[in-house]
Write a structure and sequence with these properties.
The protein contains 15 helices and no strands. By secondary structure, it is mainly alpha-helical. It folds into 2 domains: 29-78, no CATH class; 88-313, MetI-like fold. It is globular. It starts with 19 loop residues before the first helix and ends with a helix.
Length: 315
């Protein structure tokens, strides 16, 4: 009788993977943090340094600016430039116009954007897709400067402050972002409110808007920054320099070296004004125009990040 001497091979155990090095990387990722913080530090320096140099220059006297064009700390600081710009009536008027455009324009922008986005968020509305197609087309292909100028002129808005508000009441991108955020609101809330007899406006103001504050804050910040930095529209639509917003006056001072539109500083003689370095006045004007919007942003930063993140996930 034949004997089968062949033996079955025992299954070999899987080879052990040496994870010592990977575990060491996970336990001690100190060099990764060093790289990240180093990159962030240099990015912060590159971002903050130009702003800091402008602030230092605005507090520096004329002889120091002429001797040291690159200063990291003010030497013999003075407030002459700020005394001059705050004593200039034209600059204060331009500041008031910019504040008016920012506050009123942002309020109207939010109202029109919210109403339009809430209506377009209802899929059952007839021609909803066609309307959204028009909005996307308007976002990608604008009419241009000449047609917009003709519309502003025909509406009688030329040389009026409202020319900087009415033609741009709704931004298509912000409208789409707001509509996508309204989709994240549970429809059951609206259905239960309708069963209780609530109207569409009551549902919008009492239910939808309180749940959409992150998106509203985000879009409001977009609109507010756009209005605060407005100078391109004013360059075409506003000829009267007494109606110039702050950024257009700032452009005239910095780029064109035109100080005639600044008006006369009350209580300052011509000799004293000539003693101020134009670079000192430019720096002080930049600081004056930048600080207000920088003071508002930290209060809206949380809503800004949350609104962009959630609005990008939905839709």
């Amino acid at each position: 009788m034949a004997i089968n001497l062949s033996l079955k091979r025992k299954p070999t155990a899987p080879r052990a993977i040496d994870v010592t090095s990977s575990n060491r990387l996970l336990r001690n990722p100190w060099y990764g943090e060093v790289i990240i913080y180093t990159v962030l530090f240099f990015a912060g320096v590159v971002t903050i340094l130009p702003i800091w140099l402008i602030v230092v220059r605005s507090f520096s006297p004329t002889n120091i600016i002429a001797r040291y064009p690159f200063l990291l700390w003010p030497i013999d600081p003075t407030l002459d430039a700020y005394t001059y710009i705050f004593g200039t009536p034209t600059l204060l008027v331009s500041f008031g116009i910019t504040v008016f455009i920012t506050v009123v324009g942002t309020a109207l922008n939010l109202m029109m954007t919210i109403l339009a986005a809430y209506g377009l968020s209802k899929r059952e509305i007839p021609f909803n897709g066609l309307l959204m197609g028009f909005i996307v087309f308007a976002m990608l292909f604008s009419a241009g400067i000449v047609p917009t100028f003709m519309v502003v002129r025909q509406l009688g808005l030329f040389d009026q402050i409202w020319a900087l508000i009415i033609p741009q009441l709704v931004n298509p991108f912000n409208l789409i972002l707001m509509r996508n955020y309204f989709w994240s609101v549970p429809p059951e809330l609206e259905e239960s409110a309708k069963i209780d007899g609530a109207s569409d406006l009551r549902i919008l103001f009492n239910i939808v808007l309180p749940l959409s504050m992150p998106a509203i804050a985000t879009i409001g910040l977009f609109y507010a920054v756009g209005h605060w930095n407005e100078f391109f529209g004013a360059l075409f639509y506003i000829n009267d320099n007494s109606k110039w917003p702050l950024q257009l006056l700032l452009r005239s001072i910095i780029i064109e070296n035109n100080f005639q539109n600044m008006g006369s500083a009350g209580g300052w003689g011509e000799v004293h004004i000539r003693m101020i370095n134009p670079e000192n006045i430019k720096a002080a004007t930049i600081v004056f125009a930048t600080v207000p919007i920088l003071m508002v942003y930290p209060f809206l930063q949380h809503y800004f990040v949350q609104g962009v993140k959630l609005g990008a996930i939905k839709g």
